[in-house]
Amino acid sequence: MLGYIDCHCHISARDFDEDLDDVIENAKKAGLLALLAVAEHAGEFEKIIGLSQRFPGFIFPALGVHPVQEVSPEQQRGASLQDLAAALPLIENYKDQLVAIGEVGLDFTPRFVSGESDKDDQRKVLIQQAQIAKQLDLPLNVHSRSAGRPTIQLLKEQGVEKALLHAFDGRPAVAMEGVRAGYLFSIPPSVVRSEQQKLVKQLPLENICLETDSPALGPEKQVRNEPQNVRISAEFISRVKGVSLQSVMEVTTQNALRLFPRIKPALLP
């Protein structure tokens, strides 16, 4: 199966409202087979499901509550159980269409957490979503900013076996704890300008997937990122690992299909 899979992007973001058809067309021309549309809050669930129906067999939905929630464009806060309560009926409603629960996780960036109680609230939200994923036999698509070790620890404590850690910013040694637990790590195009380069060197290719996190984490700061840029991640991994681009494509795609098996039937001819 020749082509890339973008395992984590926000195709439902307003940034794509004006030219979504072009963005999807450019992604396909760049060799994408599929992309995972992750959610941040219940308010965008219906839009993501709608996009997966508009582009069947190409956009695949993941629904979940992100650890940081927006109050206004200027103000954000940690997720609460109330945020999750709003999301649960929709997750239940669309469970048969989902390929993952996400984007979920922990974010201990100081401006979002003012103390241990905020961290505990995020942990409770993640624990519940980990349990939902296990009940539905779905993988987790996981955010772990400034919380690499606590996130991996919590996933292991909850008995999570299937997880993708996206844009992991923890130390490579911490990531290797995730590798030993069987978790995968997705690399965005921003790797060309970030500390994640050390991570790519250390991770086995069998534990790497590709992502864009579009419209964020592009190769250039402050420039809208697109799914077509997944190739930039692949090219960087190819150089660092000293393997062909073809090998990176094949292995990362097989990794993605192993982690997200619900994608596979749609891609088979």
Automatic annotation (TrEMBL):
Keyword Hydrolase: yes
GO molecular function, one term: metal ion binding
Residue positions binding a divalent metal cation 2: H143, H166
Pfam families the UniProt entry points to: TatD_DNase
Keyword Cytoplasm: no
Keywords: Hydrolase, Metal-binding
InterPro entries reported in the protein's UniProt record: Metal_Hydrolase (IPR032466), TatD-like (IPR001130)
Residues reported to bind a divalent metal cation 1: H8, H10, E103, D213
Function: Exhibits 3'-exonuclease activities and apurinic/apyrimidinic (AP) endonuclease (in vitro). Show preferential AP endonuclease activity on double-stranded DNA substrates and 3'- exonuclease activity on single-stranded DNA.
Family: Belongs to the metallo-dependent hydrolases superfamily. TatD-type hydrolase family.
Protein name per UniProt: TatD DNase domain containing 3
